Amino acid sequence: MEWIVSYDGATIPRELLEIVARVEEPSLTGIRVMATGRPSCAAVARTVALGQVTTPWLATLDADDVWLPGGLDALFTAVSNDDAVWGAGLTVDLVGDRMVAFPDYLKPGRQARGAIYDRYRELGFPPFCGAAVVAETDAVHHVGGWPALPVSEDTALMLTLGEHFECHYLARTPVYGYRRWPDQTTAQPDYSDRRDALRAHHARRIAALRGGSVFRTRRHVPMSRGA
Predict the structure, then answer these.
(1) Residue-range domain boundaries for the chain
(2) Boundaries of each Glycosyltransferase 2-like domain copy (predicted)?
(3) Which of 23, 145, 201, 202 has its CA 20 to 30 Å from the CA of residue 130?
(4) 58-212 — its CATH code?
């Protein structure tokens, strides 16, 4: 297993390098630390790092979240056993020292293409955290990585993956911890407005993938040349 630490900025802070130097993980074959070049957003940090991934599978982790003990292994095993291209698992909220559990919003096992977005539309929110995902690296390249969005880029990726490939959902077993704290992006007053704009983005993107784009239905009018 290899880690790529992608820092969203021009210069890697010394504090980050010190943290990486203290990592002790027997299963690691190496840790690479890179900077994106200038502050942008999580989508840029992830997609820039995607170009450096050399393993056939990948998973991501935000700096303030955690894979729960054994969670990543359990999810990867379940996805592999189902011969799926990608998969996701149950997420819990971490509030201080408390773990707040959520129900499963999907039935366990294989999810048909399109099922993830259909469930997202029914619920009004994603059926699982977009970061709680493992996927074949080639599949993530196939859909273009994480789109350039200020928030919800992981939701956008998993919705797009769900249109192209069937997904395995690991139910009943929490795998990922989403940390709640006052300064996080989703806790800011303007987040609800940005979320509405992102829902419109997701709807248009999925409509285009399903053949409902205006570019697919517009009548072609030949251009005329002047005399």
Answers:
(1) 58-212
(2) 11-97
(3) 23
(4) 3.90.550.10
